[in-house]
Every structure is written in structure tokens, then in C-alpha cells.
Amino acid sequence: MTTLLDHQDSHVTTAVRGTVGHIAPEYLSTGQSSEKTDVFGFGILLLELITGQRALEFGKSANNKGAMLDWVKKIHLEKKLEMLVDKDLKSNYDRIELEEMVQVALLCTQYLPGHRPKMSEVVRMLEGDGLAERWEASQRVDTTKFKPQDSSSSDRYSDLTDDSLLLVQAMELSGPR
Fold first, then answer.
1. Which of 108, 112, 149 minimizes the C-alpha distance to 126?
2. Which InterPro entries does the UniProt entry name for this protein (predicted)?
3. How many domains would you assign to the chain?
4. CA 147, CA 153: separation in Å to the nearest integer?
5. Which CATH number belongs to the domain containing residue 75 in this structure?
6. What gap in Å lies between CA 124 and CA 93, rounded to an integer?
7. Which domain, by its residues, includes 117?
8. 10 CB neighbour count, 10 Å cutoff
9. What is the 3-state secondary structure (H, E, C) of the chain?
């Protein structure tokens, strides 16, 4: 998405463009787009591939709009990753690759854009280079000081993606999917 923007123009847009559910929280709230906005969307795409569910459909079926990311974080902490896997795969997947893919997705979907990896780093991590170090470093960061004081970041993101607040018409979305 960021490569499609004319960099001579402002990076601030008047209309949110992109796939709802994949849009980074900072883009929804400020309209500012960056490479890290795309990284967030890619992280959500990875989670959709793992779970076999679209981000917004997950929220509707679980009666928790915008809750996919919170659910994945919880399951990861509980070390029950098998609960994440697309049911159609049954047990036909590599558990180590699943763990690594979830870690990459969680790194990509960190709330603060500055904490997300660059896309070139994401590619290297998916190829098996540097993930362990990056993951370890992310776990040492005290994330409590980065959360908004009035509500959790996931609550704010959920509010921003709520159907009642974000009625994006198909014509407003940028380009084909």
C-alpha cells in the first residue's frame, strides 16, 4: 500500500483505504501510512492463513469483534498452538514451523509501528534467519509502558474496526484484492 502512495503528496489521507481487518491501528486513527502499516497487514494475513479464518469473520463468529489478535496472543502464551491451526489441516502440519509462523505474525502485529520488523526482515525470518534473536528481543521489551492508559491497545483497535464505526464502501477501497 505504501508504495502506491505518491510520496510528493502528503502521507495523510482523508479516506481509509485497505482491507478492513488488515489495517494497522495507527492508520485507522491517524490516516498516516508507512512500511510498518503494510507489515501489520501481512501479520494479520499470516494469522488468517494459520487459522483458516478471516480476521473480521473470526470476530463475528466468536462474538468478539476484532479479537483474533488477542485470541492468538492468549493461545500462544498458554502454549496451545494446535488450537490455532485451520481445522481442515487436522494434524498435517509441522509444529516447529507453526510456532515460528505465529512468532513472525505476532512481531508484525505489534501495536507500536516502531516495534514491528521491516518487510525484508520478515522475509528473512520466514526463511529461518534471525527469528530466534528478534523474538527473544521482543520478549525482553517491557510492553506495559507502551499501552494507552485509558484502555488496552486491542480494545482501541477493536473499537476502530467495529462495523458501526468503519463502514467502508467497496468503492472506497484501493484497487483489486
1. 108
2. CR_Ser/Thr_kinase, Kinase-like_dom_sf, Prot_kinase_dom, Ser-Thr/Tyr_kinase_cat_dom
3. 1
4. 6
5. 1.10.510.10
6. 21
7. 2-6+19-143
8. 11
9. CHHHCCCCCCCECCCCCCCCCCCCHHHHHHCECCHHHHHHHHHHHHHHHHHCCCHHHHHHHCCCCCCHHHHHHHHHHCCCHHHCCCHHHCCCCCHHHHHHHHHHHHHHCCCCHHHCCCHHHHHHHHCCCCHHHHHHHHHHCCHHHHCCCCCCHHHHHHHHHCCCCCCCCHHHCCCCC
| Distance of alpha carbon 43 from the chain centroid | 4
Is residue 131 pLDDT above 90, yes or no?
A: yes
Quickly state the pLDDT bin for 116 (edges 50, 70, 90).
Answer: very high
Kindly tell me if the per-residue pLDDT of 58 is higher than 80: no
- Predicted pLDDT at 16: 57
